[in-house]
Amino acid sequence: MNLDPIAISATGLTRKFGSLIAVNNVDLEIPAGTIYGFLGPNGSGKSTTIRMLCGLLTPSAGAAMVLGMDSVRQSERLKQEIGYMTQRFALFEDLTVRENLQFISAVYALPRARRRSRVNQLLQEFNLMNQTGQRAGTLSGGQKQRLALAAATLHEPKILFLDEPTSAVDPQNRRDFWEKLFEMAQQGTTILVSTHYMDEAARCHRIAILDLGIKVADGSPKELGENIAYNVIEVVADNPNSARLSLAQNKSFTSITQLGVRLRVLIPKEIPDALEQVQLNLRQSQVSAQAEPVFPDLEDIFMAVTEERRRAEAA
Amino acid sequence: MNSLIRIFAVLRKEFLQLSRDRLTFGMIVGIPLLQLLMFGYAINTDVRNLTAAYADEANTHLSRQFISDIAASQVINLSQRVDTVQDLNRLMDAGVIAIGISVPEDFDRRVIARDRSAVQLLVDGTDPIILGVAQQLTALPIAFDSQTAAAPLRLIGVRNYYNPERRSAVNIVPGLVGVILTMTMVMFTAVAIVREKERGNMELLINTPIKTPELMLGKIIPYILIGLIQLVIILTMGRYFFEVPIRGSYAHVLAASLVFIAANLALGLLLSTVTKTQFQAMQMTFFFFLPSILLSGFMFPFDGMPVIAQNIAEVLPLTHFNRLIRGIILRGADITSMWNEMLAMIAFLAVTLTLAIARFSKRLD
Question: How far B202 CA sits from the closest chain A CA (Å)?
């Protein structure tokens, strides 16, 4: 068991591809035994950051310590201690489920007897007993994902990196998958998971929001909600379309997001009477709707922090 | 110990994958069979039955005798008779004939006087091999029965070593061993690694504790075996289809082939480190394969090539392997008498393998 309370720390982590800055000056501090989420849209630098932490990519600047080891200079020693589940299914599609796990167990040079028992244990644990002889290429999305997670955890790593692990999986499988992750975190594994699903990020103990390679916010979902510089007003209208058009006329409202019949309006905290302003706006346009202040959810937080950054850049 | 476990794991995986990849498996056996049959039967420098026509303007007893002698030689196939030399020229321009035989009106007189050549062969010299064949025809004796049979004494006699029947297959089959191995070995390894890059397997592999030489060894060993299978196929077929004898020792054939196979596999590994897609890997293979086949002495005698071409050829492992394998198989040579050829291949192997391992990075940058 790793006694160091900080599993991963990074300072000024930067990676350039030519003129593109994929990851820009990211600082991280990830406590051991937590599930830490990277939230961000495609191209925000989530995968690149994970690859740098695994030692697969050399940072252009900055450095990362993973389990007390330098991610560049000690990357080979580190590989025995970490597990990495790639975004794309990376196991061998022309090998069977069991053969794939056997291969991984030998590559990590587990003792012979341990190899057999560990493979069987994982097949049980990940509910793959009925697929042992099936070629990995013919598995369903959920089965592939379970196999990939089984392979990544086979050598009992202290840190698990998961790069968008649930992008090809149905909701039931996603829920089971997360239960699995909580179980592992309970047993002391540190899990770093990237996602662009808000609801997934909400399950993490802590998250970092990445946008265009910059870490724009981090903390627990609750902290992030408290710290944003916006109030969120939820509007429920019979005709949400006309409500949206009406609200859009007020330029001091930062953003309006429609969720079915509900609208979520972000209004900077400098404006003291946010709720009254919204109600006034709706009355003036003669739109019948109820408005009430709500606690920001992750989507609001995401909108807020990326918006803030764009403003800072424009200024 | 851990190294061995990992190498063995890669080995096992490669064999499992190979046994399930029917296309590759078919190519392992199919390529040698097809190429051997194609080259063995089609390439024939000992040409017979060249299309020819003749213009017999003398039309005497002797000229007719001469024409039937020449037809009996089977070197040419006299397809038609025309009236004049101009007609022969026309046929040759049109590409109908490769050789024209012109017998002039005063043929008999010329044979008796022996002051000028009695017959003219018109030869399509665009193909030097045809010219060589025509040369054989000039040795045909022409004389009246009554003339003293002054059998022309040849001052230079030729003795054909190793291949008295002048069969091309004897030269081609051992050469094909190297050609086929070059093509398949380089391509198989290059593609085998690039395929894993394309399919995303490589990102998983390089994130495990496996070391580069372990991965490379595990990848190479199955293909060495495949190379040996191909060697056996080619030599067995050569022995029983084309009657190419193996005069040297099997152990020497094996030793030379093993080094050659390893050299090509190392090159395949190197190519896989500079290419990103299977298509690029194929292109690079042919970029290397063509000069190999053309310059190595497989097609043309090495000594006839310009110095620059010879220098390039000396770098290619196929050049050295061709000398070795022809020496061992056809002349029964001892491998130790050709140690410098072995050394050249080993040097090539060492350089490419070092470069491949140095270039293969366990990183994605």
Answer: 8
Q: Report long-range pairs for A17-23 (Cβ below 8 Å, ≥24 apart).
A: A21/A213, A22/A48, A22/A213, A23/A48, A23/A49, A23/A52, A23/A59, A23/A213
Structure confidence at residue B290 (pLDDT):
92
A315 belongs to a structural domain:
no
For chains A and B, CB pairs below 8 A equal 76
Chain A nearest CA to B208, separation (Å): 6
Give the residue from A107, A110, A112, A153 with the most B CB atoms within 10 Å of its CB, the best one to mutate: A107
ipTM surpasses 0.95: no
Say whether A56 and B2 touch across the interface (CB within 8 A).
Answer: no
Domains of chain B: 26-43+171-359 (no CATH), 50-137 (3.40.1710.10)
**Are residues A80 and A206 both part of a single domain?**
yes
B161-185 burial code (b ≥16 CB/10 A, e <16): eeeeeebbbbbbbbbbbbbbbbbbb
Do A252 and A216 share a domain, yes or no?
A: no
A241 and A185, same domain (yes or no): no
pTM, entire model: 0.82
Please write the tens of the pLDDT for every residue from A275-296: 999 999 999 988 888 999 999 8
CA distance A60 to chain B (A): 10
B-chain CB neighbours of A74 within 8 Å are none
- A32-50: pLDDT as tens digits: 999 999 998 888 999 999 9
